[in-house]
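Narrative summary of target 7.
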Amino acid sequence: MKKLTMAVVAGTLVAAAGGARAQRLDRMQWFNEPAEWTVRDANTFVMQVPAKTDYWRITHYGFTVDDAPFCYALYGGEFEATVKITGDYRTTFDQMGLMLRLDCEEWIKCGVEFVEGRQHVSTVVTHRTSDWSVVGLDAAPRSLWIRAVRRLDAVEVAYSLDGEHYSTVRTCYLEAHRPVQVGLMAASPDGEGFEAVFENFTVRHLPDQRRSEWAAARARE
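Modeled conformation, tokenized:
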């Protein structure tokens, strides 16, 4: 697979769905850019995940790692981010999905994590130290849809097997009124890497909830 630069993909769009705003890849940035990645078509982004990479802070293990690839754009306010993910998972802890990141001590990653031969919907929430929650999947779906909705000071994480019907797995804190890096993350902490395919990455801005509630209250006066 040929390595590309952002200039090569200038003007390419990650396709929008349901009125969500398409995210231009040429306006995204890399944190820990991998050696190999490409745009397969207008809505498919592929990376070869580097070996021995991860995001984690301190809890249980006593170490901090912050070296997995993350391709992101900056968003303020409230929004809904969705993506379809397909991974060639090989080794325990192979993972991919969405990441929302304020800085190295404040971030959320959510998606699929491969644990003991089984796919799990995984969420890691980090506020100086990390915690981890998983929901095991009975089957091994080829693909999964992940959604993260930021409202006020909270993020709601959900997954879907068909891209239409979502199940919520986590609601967690994320500081309000700060721009956040939103994008695509994958890691292979114990393995030699794998191919991660992201499709239809979209971000849809939402009306500010407190302002909407204030306007509704004023309208009733």
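The chain has one domain: 13-220.
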